[in-house]
Amino acid sequence: MDALLTRGVGKLIPRELAEAKIASGKKMRVYLGIDPTGAKLHLGHAVPLRKLKAFADAGHHVIFLVGSFTAMIGDPSGRDDQRQSLTRKQVEENFQTYKDQASKILDFSKIEIRYNHEWLQKLTQEELLKIASYFTKQQMDQRDMFERREREGNPIHLQEMLYPLYVGYDSVILDVDCELGGTDQEFNMLAGRTLQKAFKKREKFILTTPLIEGTDGRKMSKTYNNCIYLTDEPNDMYGKLMSLKDTLMKTYFECCTDVPVHQYQEVLKGNLRDAKAHLAHEIVTLYHGKAAADNAKKEFENVFQKRDLPADVPEVKVKKGSLLIDVVVEQGLVSSKSEARRLVSQKGIHMNDRVVDSTETKAEKGIVKIGKRKFLKIL
Questions:
Q1: What distance in Å separates the CA atoms of residue 63 and residue 75, rounded to the nearest whole number?
Q2: Beta-carbon neighbour count of residue 370 at 10 Å?
Q3: 2-209 under CATH 3.40.50.620, yes or no
Q4: CATH number of the domain at 315-378, please?
Q5: What are the start and end residues of each CATH 1.10.240.10 domain in the chain?
Q6: 222-305 sits in which CATH class?
Q7: How many Cβ atoms are within 10 Å of 314's Cβ, its own excluded?
Q8: Could you say which DSSP state residue 203 is in?
Q9: Could you report the per-residue pLDDT of 141-177, keeping only the tens digit for each?
Q10: Is 367 within 8 Å of 309 (Cβ atoms)?
Q11: Segment 325-368, tens digit of pLDDT
């Protein structure tokens, strides 16, 4: 039970309340709220999902809240500009994709799913004014992204200031003992704690989970192209994990695996390459199974240690004179021509072991290598 409040945890606010509720042995109401603003989940998203699963496994009543109303406002957390608002249809479509991926972690048959449009779209002006009366402009000004925007002369929209009030009211309706969320959600979760007290509900504690870094050491983000997605193919996921910075391994073991603490501490005392292989195998196993992880490990060793080609290199015939960047885009090895041009400028494409240094390079028979893990055989 202690691991619920220690492993993969950023903050407990207030810690004394969290420890007392856990020590009581009583079944708690615990929730995680998500705004389904994107279609793909990465390991960073998985961290709070895994913590929610831990509470469910411990026998607590777990609620998965879909921000079907708040996603249409846009969470300002961590944003230097206004987040794009979504339509209800977009929210519903995104959640279906989100749920399919989150099912790799959560057993939704054992979890209560709620949608916050059920109560937020019914709020009267009088009720909203009452909620707003518990907060001040000075409190909102304390949000770091608002301070930064004001300093830089960027706009802060009133609907963004209302966002914490709406998600805070979720806590009132759900009447929970604990709310989970990333460290970037602390302000929003504290708003819920304030409102639960104001509306004479039970007192909740908040538990924040760390925001993990991506493969390059920066915040995991699609913008930085450094994400490890839950939908990545096993070989690709394994390869990305093997490219992690050594300093990130402890965090990944703690937040992204079920390896006991004493075990991964011993692993990290040994050879770091072996430790990273252990980490990669554990994570691929979680999302694709042991057989896929074993195959990904073998494939990685063949390609990057023995310098062999992968066993499943795709093959294609091309017309004479075809541009190489057109071929790799058509074959789905890169997402767009602009991405292909960027890779060429960064010397990230090789043809027959030669660096491709021009976007006008013609495709020729042989092996094309894109980045570290993608290959194409031109016939």
A1: 20
A2: 20
A3: yes
A4: 3.10.290.10
A5: 222-305
A6: mainly alpha
A7: 12
A8: -
A9: 777 767 777 778 887 788 888 999 999 999 999 999 9
A10: yes
A11: 999 999 988 988 888 998 999 888 988 878 898 999 999 888 89
